[in-house]
Amino acid sequence: MNERKSVSMGERWRREATRGIDDKRLAAALEALPSIRKPMLRIRAGSIRAEMEGSMGSIHEVSLQIRTLPQRDMMTLVRVLRRSKTIIEALDDGRVPRAFDRLVARVVGEPLFPDSRSVTFGCSCDLQEKPCRHVLALHELVARRLDDRPWELLLLRGVDLQVLLAKVRQTEPEADLPPLAFGVPEEPVLYPDAEDTDLGQVLTPAQMRWLIDAPSERAVGAALKALAALPSTPPAAPAPVTPAS
Question: Where does the pLDDT of residue 174 fall: very low under 50, low under 70, confident under 90, or very high at 90 and above?
């Protein structure tokens, strides 16, 4: 079975922020990066702000804005999270697994990790290109911060990690929630951290039998073997047949 590599939180942020930006502008942003006053970087619920030293001693105010997650379903998230020991352990360690991102999307209605369209920006410079190099430099600094402190993404989306974990630990998992799928000990089962995956990587053969109602483990093994034997790229389309004249 091929191993899938997980993409870091910072790299995900970098990919979204630089989507459609050409190499020349990215190079200019990296050159501007050292002029950000790092002690002045401020991450708050809904915003990231920084000051950047420009030419001739000028100071630019640079910011990123994103709406916080709706709070109406947070208690539902807490209740479901109580049954997700692996995710709780990761959050307690300061990590934010991809599984938690997808769980938030399932319960709250939107993922924890934002796409580029939901992040707005501002800068006090008078450069014509948008986003300017100062904004791109701030995105890069945020990406680096998220690699070191991934839990700050929760802060940005208006979620206090310590408060969330305290609520999760207040009581035992509640019996009125629906039973866990496939007989697994915790949920979510179909939300691995890898970029892409298949059921064979996530479910055990016994769970696969439950899912497809297969009569035996041999049938499941044969199905997985057949899937593994499929080529990674689809076969080329047959050449069109030219009718005889």
Answer: low
